[in-house]
TrEMBL record:
GO terms for biological process: regulation of DNA-templated transcription. The keyword S-adenosyl-L-methionine applies. Signal peptide: none annotated. Pfam families: PRMT5_C. The keyword S-adenosyl-L-methionine applies. Gene3D superfamilies: Hnrnp arginine n-methyltransferase1. It comes from Pneumocystis jirovecii (Human pneumocystis pneumonia agent). One of its GO terms (molecular function) is protein-arginine N-methyltransferase activity. It comes from the Eukaryota. GO terms for cellular component: cytosol; nucleus. Keywords: S-adenosyl-L-methionine. InterPro entries: Arg_MeTrfase, PRMT5_C, SAM-dependent_MTases_sf. Residues 27-216 form the PRMT5 oligomerisation domain. This is PRMT5 oligomerisation domain-containing protein.
Amino acid sequence: MNFAQNVLTAYIIDIKKANGGIFIPSSYTSYITPLMTPKLYGNILRMKERSAFESFYVIWLHSMHYLAQDDENRFQVLWKFSHPNSNYSDRGKSSNLHNKRQSKNTFNISSKGMLHGFAGYFEAVLYDDIELSTRPDMIDIKSKDMISWFPAFFPLKTPFYIPPNSQIDLYFWRQTDSKKVWYEWLTEIYLDLSKIKNNEVIHNSDRVKIAISELHNYNASFFMTLID
C-alpha cells in the first residue's frame, strides 16, 4: 500500500482483478505531514551519497517533532485509490497512467523549527468496516497493537528554518509509466504576513516566499519496478 512496504498495490490489484471478485483492500488513502527530525536527517547525511536524498525510507519514526501542531492541519490527504478502478482497462497494463497522482498541501506553522522532510502515513479499508491505519492519531482506534506497517520518510537535501507564523507548501507527485513507479517532491516556505502584528512593509499578498527546495527524485533516480 502507499507509504508502506508496497507502493505498487494499485498496479497489482489492477492487473489481478476478476469480474465479481472482492478487492482487499477496497480503498486506501495516503497522508503527509512536515517533520523536524535532526537525528534521522543526520543518519541519511552520513550515507555520504547525494542520491540518498532522492529515496524515501520506510522506518519507525521517533526522535522527531510534528511542525504542524493543530489536529485538523497536521495529517493531510495526498490522494486515494479505490478498487475496482473505473479508469482501468486492458491498456492499463502497458501505460499505468491512470495510477498517476499529484497533490499540493499547505501546512500552517505557528512555532519556529527546522524542516528536515515529510512523514507519509496511510489508512486502508480492507473490507466493509474493517480498517487499518498507520496515522499516530488513529492507529489505536483502527489498528491497535499493529506493528507490521511503518510510516515513510521523504527527506529534504537541505533543511529549512521555519519561522513562527509561516506556511509550508508541499508539491507531491506519484509518477508512473509502463515499467516503474516513483515519487517526486518539492516544498516552498512562506511567511504568513496576515498573522504578524504591526507589519510596516506593504505587500500585494498575505504571504511572502522565503525559501524553495530542489525537486527531489526528478525523473526517477529512485524507483520501484512494476511486475507482470
